[in-house]
Amino acid sequence: MTLPFEVGVVVRDLGLMERFYRDVIGCRAERRSRVPESVGGPAGLGGELAVVWLRVPSGGCVKLILPRSAPVSGYVEPLPAGRPGLSYLTFHLDDVDPVVAALPAAGARPLSDPVVVRARGRRISFWADPEGNVVELVDARGGNPGPGHSN
């Protein structure tokens, strides 16, 4: 492999999703592009695409993909994590608490109660982003979680 891993997420609202992953999760907008129908069509992505590349600070990239000629419609409930195929995006953070605190105002929904759990010396939180994609937040602080979080 020659570059860090990239993942593509097909979205309905490119601006909303860029703000979510940039302002709340902490990715950095790196570039924007239009992908012609000659590439997007054969890839099964509905023709011409608008794409925003968001750099993950620790490496890798999230590509937000908006089909221009066949827009994505309707909200889709998050799929269960135990199904075959891509289940969720994981972001490793120094501290999940400030991100978890900002997620509801950004349109995300918690997928567990309690919102933050401890497992194997890590603190983990699962959320559905504003369009229903599942996001896992992980920090290595195995200490005492704050109020409202699990042991």
Structure description:
It is a single chain. The protein has helices at residues 14-24, 37-40, 96-102; strands at 6-10, 28-35, 49-55, 61-67, 89-92, 109-110, 117-119, 122-128, 134-139. It has 151 residues and is of the alpha+beta class. Strand 3 (49-55) and strand 4 form a beta hairpin. It starts with 5 loop residues before the first strand and ends in a 12-residue tail after the last strand. 25% of the residues are buried. The model is unreliable at 145-151 (pLDDT under 50).
- Count the helices. How many? 3
Q: Helical content, roughly?
A: 10-25%
> Overall 3D geometry?
globular
Q: How many strand elements?
A: 9
- Unreliable residue stretches: 145-151
- Secondary-structure-based class equals alpha+beta
Main sheet: strands, sense, barrel: 5 strands, mixed
What Rg do the Cα atoms give? 16 Å
Distance between the termini: 39 Å
Kindly summarize this structure in a few lines.
The protein has 151 residues and is α+β, with helices and mostly antiparallel strands. It is built from three helices and nine strands.
List keywords for this structure.
single chain, 3 helices, four-stranded mixed beta sheet, 9 strands, 151 residues, alpha+beta
